[in-house]
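Notebook B, p. 112. Complex prediction, attempt 2.
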Amino acid sequence: MTIKLGVPSKGRLMEKTFDWFGARGVTLSRTGSDREYAGTVGGVDGVDLVLLSAGEIPRELAAGRIHLGVTGNDLIQEKLVQWDQKVEPLAPLGFGFANLIVAVPQCWVDVDTLDDLDGAAAAFRTRHGFRMRIATKYHRLVRDYLRRGGVADYQLVDSQGATEGTVKNLTAEAIADITTTGETLRANHLKILDERPVLESQATLFRSRVAEKSDADRVVLRTLIDRLGV
Amino acid sequence: MAQDIPYKSRVRIEAEAICDGFISAGAARFETDILLQAEVLLDLYGEDIRARAYVTTDPERGEMMLRPDFTVPVVQYHMAGDGFPASYTYFGEVFRKQEDHPDRRSEYLQVGYEEFGGANAAAADADVFGQFSGALAPLGLRAATGDIGILIAMVEGLNTTDDRRAALMRHIWRPARFTALVKRFAGLTPVPPSRAALLAADTEMPEGGVMIGLRSEREIATRIAALRADAAQPRMSSEIVDLIAAVLAVSETCPNALERLRDIAVDLPGLLPALDRFEARCEAMQQRGIDVDALPFEASYGRTSMEYYDGFVFGFYSETRPDLPPVATGGRYDALTRRLGQGRENPAVGGVIRPDVVLELGGLR
């Protein structure tokens, strides 16, 4: 048995993860061709690198197929029911910052708070005969947020990409999505509600609470965690 | 060697026995599909139901939902009929996601009993409560009762603007939001800077950028006008805030609660018709042999459940097993028959029992 470390398989998230581990004396690297998802771990014995899509890492941690994994806490909290019983956050990694926010058209000069959104939703339903549509892929987090915020008369519509365009395309009245700089939102004539975000996310190292470990694995895990200083 | 009767069979036997009891009380047996059209349920319960019900799609029929309860199908069935008074009983699987309580079952049986068309609401309320109380008597449960009708009458009777009453009415079932609205109307919470700026703007329609989306400029202007009109109104008085708090805090035995509410109604006379109905129900219960003097009443009870109850509400709980969900819940839902009745309405009151919880507590048989 070995300790399995799941890391995003491509892009800046992967590079920054490699850098973060590298700065702590644990060398992660891809092997083989650029297209092959295989990698090695240097600097500590008994650890396997598993390259995965960041979106799959929550599920793999919860299933115990990997012991450690790097992904955003937005994905962990959206995808795992009672996430804190399945994984433990060991360290925020200081990159991959993104906020999950609710945004409405800039021209809605009367809507800046959740209270406003609820008021507008009530009037919208009366006027149009259906509940105000909010496009998102983060259904659980957004529903929970709006319920706690006392917003009624809305519906979530699924949008897996180009969510900022849904308002202009008349398939939604508002959106809930991840944003870093807000530039795409502004370009699409949307503004962020003047409320705390649904979630503040960044890349985070998680430990699976359910993955099985031999005694030898425990030693390896301890060594790795000590080396990383988390 | 005889094998143990499987758990699900024992629950089913328990359910059948309870259902048979309702049949001998005169109810007709009701059956319906497990896969229901999602649209009508979503329209009724709002987005929150998605967090609790299983939604799936059918290529031809669109979004479908695994039956989250029987209320909507039984109301639709009754309202499509001849409109004569009728009572129904049913049992079958219902499906609820349990994100907050993964240890609880997401598929379980419900036994229901519903009375439609009873012209004497007090008698029908008392009868339904009596049926449940009688059926569950061997378990020694704690009963809880309330009356959403009193809360509705309270809001209707408030000395404030129509818009404020409408906003409060919309959120009767969301206690935190309701309280936040009361505080805002009373000026007890600071006006957010964005709202202050909007109200202070000297143009009718401040500049906001490109018009996109379905919500038109006119709708935005209408809401701004409404917000300005509301801001020009005097604040809701502290007397009204105190009255609302006093009503919501009532938690006594039925006779004491009635007396307390009558005291409050001196300053809030809009409550009186609802209190007369409460009193009539107490009398009807007494006549049916229910110990009303010991029956608890909480004005806030039932506010966080499904938002179709609009009158009497009740529940039965195990005091020895607070970890279990309620054994039974029910109430009056006249307004629901109006919404599903396509122009018709019919007084309706009923409730459901969880036979699995009954079994957990030792069973009735």
